Amino acid sequence: MTISVDGSDNEKYEGRENHTSSNADENHFDVVIIGSGPAGYTASIYTSRAKLKTIVISGSLPGGQLMTTTEVENYPGFPHGIDGPELMTFMQQQSERFGTAMLIDEVTRVDFKSRPFRIFTGSSSYTSDSVLISTGATPRKLGIESEQEFSGKGLSYCATCDGPFFKNQDIVVVGGGDTALEEATFLTKFGKTVKVVHRRDNLRASKILQERAFENPKIEFIWNSSIVNVKGDKKVSAVVVRDLNTTEEKNLEAGGVFVAIGHEPNTSIFKGQVDLDERGYVKVQNGTRTNIDGVFAAGDVHDFKYRQAITAAGFGCMAALDIEKWLSEKRTN
Ligand code: NAP
């Protein structure tokens, strides 16, 4: 049964007959999942199917990073590719089929020090025996005006996802870290040329990735420079690069721009509630467990290495199995 919750006080969670929660409070759940990317939706499919009363609090824009992707070609099961938003709608529908409640709202505060855990949105609060943090990460933006306009139209934040769309084109990569060089090297498989624009004359990336990039005849570096504008008619055709020493600007023809200047995990509401690493990623141990018993994490919010839809979905599945086991152990003890 489909359940949709809009956050209003008198909304009812239909379909709860599917679930076995012993707590009669309407706003109490076995599992609260915060975040609605592939990790959160996958976890909810598993926990709802296991008859745990589950709610996904999706944020104000459900679906996560894939909502800004056009075609996804590397998610298994779709031999001809699938639009990112369509894939996320399918995941949501699959989860609702098993009785997951969906709430389009932002979590503003959590309290993991009390039991049951408490989760607050702008207008309501919820309690839960377990929580999954799957709020993902946000790619750092260049912060220029044309960025939003060309996002998904030649400007991308993920070479693995979008590289194959740029066969025989001139490509620009922005950044000087491991991701930028790894992506630049990967993009040489497709692009005619790859120009790496970096704001300094020194790379942050590891030596081995630097050597590999320097040796690659398709890669050229543009040092001490930043991108100040992206141009094109409907899709990217050029970028304007500014030399940061001379302030001179020049036009570079490019069919694609890959921004690889890092990610920010979406964890500000969890500060002081679970252990985060120095960059703000949730620390996990033994699979998907955080340092708080009963609070789990899955996807880009803890995984800064793989960051793929399919790996996030995999972590979501792992988290759901960890949660099921944890709840069942707690309830039999
Ligand atoms: P990162 O290490 O934070 O590097 C970001 C790069 O973007 C830096 O070169 C930085 O310049 C530049 N940058 C940041 N903000 C910018 C802005 N506003 N405009 C222009 N340039 C900007 O991020 P990452 O490369 O995504 O790597 C993240 C973590 O994952 C790192 O720990 C990395 O080692 C790891 N990682 C490892 C591998 C691997 O081992 N194969 C692959 C990918 C990532 P500055 O250098 O001037 O600060």
UniProtKB/TrEMBL annotation:
GO BP field: removal of superoxide radicals
Location of the region described as Disordered in the Swiss-Prot/TrEMBL record: 1-24
Alphabetic keyword roster: Disulfide bond, FAD, Flavoprotein, Oxidoreductase, Redox-active center
Biased composition (Basic and acidic residues): 9-24
Enzyme class name: oxidoreductase
Keyword S-adenosyl-L-methionine recorded: no
Residue span(s) of domain FAD/NAD(P)-binding: 29-313
The keyword Oxidoreductase is annotated on this UniProt entry: yes
GO CC, alphabetical: cytoplasm
Entry's EC annotation: 1.8.1.9
GO MF terms, alphabetically ordered: thioredoxin-disulfide reductase (NADPH) activity
Domain of life: Archaea
Pfam family, one: Pyr_redox_2
InterPro entries according to UniProt: FAD/NAD-bd_sf, FAD/NAD-binding_dom, Ferredoxin-NADP_redctase_2, Pyr_nucl-diS_OxRdtase_2_AS, Thioredox_Rdtase
Name recorded for this polypeptide: Thioredoxin reductase
